[in-house]
Amino acid sequence: MTHLPVKIDDPILTVFFDRLYGIFADMDRQYAEAAKHYGFHCSGCEDNCCRTRFFHHTYLEFLYIHAGLNTLDLPRRQAIQSRAAWVCRETAKAVQKERPVRLMCPLNSDGLCMLYAYRPMICRLHGISHELRKPGQNVIHGSGCGMFDRRCSNQSYHKFDRTPFYFKMARVEGEFKQAIGLSDRFKMTIAEMIMAE
Ligand code: SF4
């Protein structure tokens, strides 16, 4: 990853974190409304989505995760770092052998996200059926997670459009990169983010 020309306590980050927080709050609100419509409540399951190898695409989410890590005491940070190192090693082995990767996110402890308030976009949106409206294309409908589809797929669809969130995230990320003079694209898993100081 490119060296970031910004430190985690840089005042410029406060401004962008506030915007990110606002977008996340909107996501959480709309997700909660949709979940209420279906009567869907995630209480954990066999195919825990925290085992999915999600990639995240913004420097801001990366920095937000590190801001969250800084709120934890040293023993917990060290435990997370050692789990992240293990996940990175095991992922590399699985990828080399072309095996599927289903490893628990290093931030998940006993079924709970240790940085729940700081979790990235996809962790907030995953699980409920949704739609995406790309300009000039037909609406793309996406299913929910396995448990959601088993429990709720026979119910009427509640509109949950991810498009405005994707646009807002892209805009705030673009403005942040411009403000600090970055042009590289970002793509990392949570484990990789934790290992990248
Ligand atoms: S960041 Fe939290 S919610 Fe997202 S995969 Fe990791 S443990 Fe799960």
Description:
- It contains seven helices and four strands, in the order αααββαββααα.
- It is mostly helical and 197 residues long.
- It has a two-stranded antiparallel sheet with strand order 1-2. Strands 3-4 form a two-stranded antiparallel sheet.
- Helix 1 runs antiparallel to helix 6 (163-180).
- The protein binds iron/sulfur cluster (SF4).
- Iron/sulfur cluster is lined by residues 50, 105, 107-108, 113, 119, 123, 190.
Number of domains: 1
What's the SSE pattern? HHHEEHEEHHH
Low-confidence parts lasting 5 or more residues at pLDDT below 50? none
The rounded Rg comes to 18 Å
> Percent helix among the residues?
40-55%
Q: What about the largest sheet? A: 2 strands, antiparallel
Q: Describe the strand arrangement of the main beta sheet, using strand numbers.
A: 1-2
Distinct helical segment count: 7
| Strand proportion | 5-15%
Mean pLDDT: 94
Q: How many E-type strands?
A: 4
Bound molecules: iron/sulfur cluster
Shape summary: globular
Our measurement of the CA-to-CA distance between the termini, rounded to an integer number of angstroms, reads: 10 Å
The secondary-structure class comes to mainly alpha
